[in-house]
Amino acid sequence: MKFRNFKMVDYVVYGSGCFDQLGEILAPRRVGDAPMIFFVDEYFQDKKEFLSRIPLQGKDKVVVIDVTDEPKTKYVDQVRDELVAEFGTVSGIIGIGGGSVMDMAKAVSLMMTNPGSSADYQGWDLVKVAGVYKVGIPTISGTGAEVSRTCVLTGPTRKLGMNSDFTPFDQIVLDPALTKTVEPNQRFYTAMDCFIHCVESLEGTYLNAFSQSYGEKAQELCEEIFLQKENWDDDADEKLMMASYAGGMSIAYSQVGVAHAVSYGLAYLLGTKHGIGNCIVFDKLEEFYPEGVVKFKQMVKKHSIDIPQGITKGLTDEQFDTMINVSLGMAPLWENALGKDWKEIMTRERLRKLYERL
Ligand code: NAD
Ligand code: ZN
To answer: Start and end of every Fe-containing alcohol dehydrogenase-like C-terminal domain (predicted)?
Structure first.
């Protein structure tokens, strides 16, 4: 198909406190006595007041998701196997957390109905059967995972999402009040994922009016929040949540670029997390995104954020080669960033020099 026929999230509820409507939203989705499974970010595991707001019924279960590492295919398969062993089938999976927990919820939902290992489905349109009902509830804003058609997983041979029309959530619950407790450095790293999505989309060769409309709005919101505001407030949480949504919509119809392509190499070799990894790379991309990098540095300074330096120091040639291979494997990202002749522009030597600067 020449024009992408873009599958979107079915239902969206937005507003401070809307989380308390979850019970009502889930009620018509319950199938017999099959339980709803709530995946909860480990941050909330001892937050009794929050846990008491989860609308548990019957055999429903809370599963605490370990977010020490970004989601792995092995972890997805293990959680799926445990749910199948305990319940056979479930009514739905609700992911409450950041990109890591939302991606786990998407992946396990799909793996409840598709046979084999989640590693078999890393790629484009390999998932053939709809998963069980799934809901995404972000508790930190920026990745756009709430609206995307992928769930990023690290598998035995690659870090790649299960991209498919079955991957987007059936429902998302956007309650900015849930993000209040995020620690400022982490909030910044994940928010910059959104800012970088916008710059990469707006400066990319795949740009079109659909992506531009969302990307410009999201970037404007990020700049308002991080450059114009003197103090963090409810308005900032609300706007950042909508920036994440719009940034996700922008890349859904275009593509990300250099920072993502390079940071995927770091993630694969060193386990560097997505938000902070993108910041480490973007900080050095003035030759590709001059205006965006200037703004980024202003935001870093204003908020006294620590951007790690020298993380590739002492790596071997073999390790650099691994990162270069992973990165150059992301062809659509490079093509969006640099155009059809990207291979001539981003040579292995040039990419090695860039990795050495990180
Ligand atoms: P995350 O989900 O890894 O969470 C980061 C940290 O914030 C964790 O320590 C978590 O415990 C904490 N946290 C979350 N909510 C909190 C709250 N309300 N209060 C206090 N602490 C809280 O981080 P992220 O940046 O949101 O997500 C990164 C993941 O998202 C990566 O795995 C990345 O691959 C994935 N991602 C997916 C997509 C997609 O389209 N599917 C897009 C971008 C990134
Ligand atoms: Zn991203």
So the answer is: 189-291
Q: Does the pLDDT value for residue 167 go beyond 80?
A: yes
Residue 275 CA, closest ligand 1 atom number: 25
Q: Which residues surround ligand 2, an ion (CB under 5 A)?
A: 193
4 within some domain? no
**Helix, strand or coil, per DSSP, at residue 348:** helix
13 pairs with which residues across the strands?
Answer: 173
- H helices, E strands: number in the chain: 14, 9
Which protein residue's CA is at the shortest distance from atom 20 of ligand 1?
A: 182
Q: Please state the rounded mean pLDDT for residues 148-176.
A: 95
Q: What is the pLDDT of residues 253-307, one digit of tens each?
A: 999 999 999 999 999 999 999 999 999 999 999 999 999 999 999 999 999 999 9
* pLDDT average, residue stretch 173-198: 98
Question: Does one domain contain both 116 and 212?
Answer: no
Residues with CB under 6 A from ligand 1: 41-43, 67, 70-71, 97-101, 103, 139-140, 143-145, 148, 150-152, 178-179, 181-182, 186, 190, 193, 274-275
95 and 220 in a single domain? The answer is no
For 102, the domain range is 11-179
CA–CA distances in Å: residue 316 to residues 28, 319, 323, 355: 56, 5, 11, 12
Task: Kindly indicate the confidence band of residue 122, based on its pLDDT and cuts at 50, 70 and 90.
Answer: very high
258 lies in some domain: yes
- The number of folded domains in the chain is 2
Task: Name the closest-CA residue to atom 8, ligand 1.
Answer: 67
How many whole angstroms separate alpha carbon 181 and alpha carbon 197? Answer: 24
- 28: in domain: yes
